[in-house]
Amino acid sequence: MELTDGRNFDLRQLTDSAAVILNETAARLFGYDDPIGKKVYYMDASSDGPPSPEDFSELTVIGVVENFHWASMRENIGALCMVLQPSNGLISFRYDASETDAVLTELERQWRAMAPDQPFSYRFMDESFAQMYQAEQRVGRIAGIFALLSVFVSCLGLFGLASYATEQRTKEIGIRKVLGASVAGIVSLLSKDFLKLVGVALLIAIPLAFYGMKQWLADFAYRIPMDWGLFVLAGIAVLLIAFFTISIQSVKTALTNPIDSLRNE
């Protein structure tokens, strides 16, 4: 957290027990141009019935920190007020990651000494943040698996269609080879019709994919921009995969001796 105005808490100053540090969003919502020294009031959550002046406590703003993400990227950075008070719930530790085992062993030893009848439980901050995006990671893995399966099934279909088409045109290919057609020319002849169909499919799929991704990213307050270059690269990759799949059978047919093809016909 980077201070943009004021100072941090100081345990040596007893008055800091009634101090507060705001983030930039909170300072803006309060309408403070110069928040240092301003007062913030809060009501005791344990108060019952209609609030009275005695239910409110006063805090003095001593600092402002730069906005930082303390919730999911689906949400805008909200207002945050930080106070220096004891916490009876969680204790956080910052330590050298290479000493994880030693730190956990010592924490558990201290815990057993203070609260032997209470279970010792802990979690890592990075894992807690990662849990917020488990759904997205799961969707990403599922989408990746289905994408690979779709490509595989599509390649099988293309290979079957290419085999059928070349078999139907065996005589034509043999005549073209006798007349001087090159292998590259025959492969191009057999591939272009399939690649046209793949191109039409891309013209339909890319706008739909762009719209779907845009709608999905709209759920996030902070998101990457949609770049058409990514879809262009994906389209080129699809065309190359399709061409490679078709070419396997096309090259095999083009290399066949035309005399054998005509004799079989």
Mind explaining what this structure looks like?
Helix 4 (134-168) packs parallel to helix 7 (228-254) and helix 5 packs across helix 8 (258-264). Strands 1, 2, 3, 4 and 5 form a 5-stranded mixed beta sheet that branches. The chain has 8 helices and 5 strands. The chain starts with a strand and ends with a helix. The protein is an alpha+beta fold. The longest helix is centred in the middle third of the chain and has 35 residues, at 134-168.
Secondary structure topology:
Elements: E1 3-6, E2 19-23, H1 24-30, E3 39-43, E4 56-65, E5 81-83, H2 100-114, H3 125-131, H4 134-168, H5 170-178, H6 183-217, H7 228-254, H8 258-264
Parallel strand pairs: 2-4
Antiparallel strand pairs: 1-4, 2-5, 3-4
Helix pairs in contact: 4-7, 5-8, 6-7
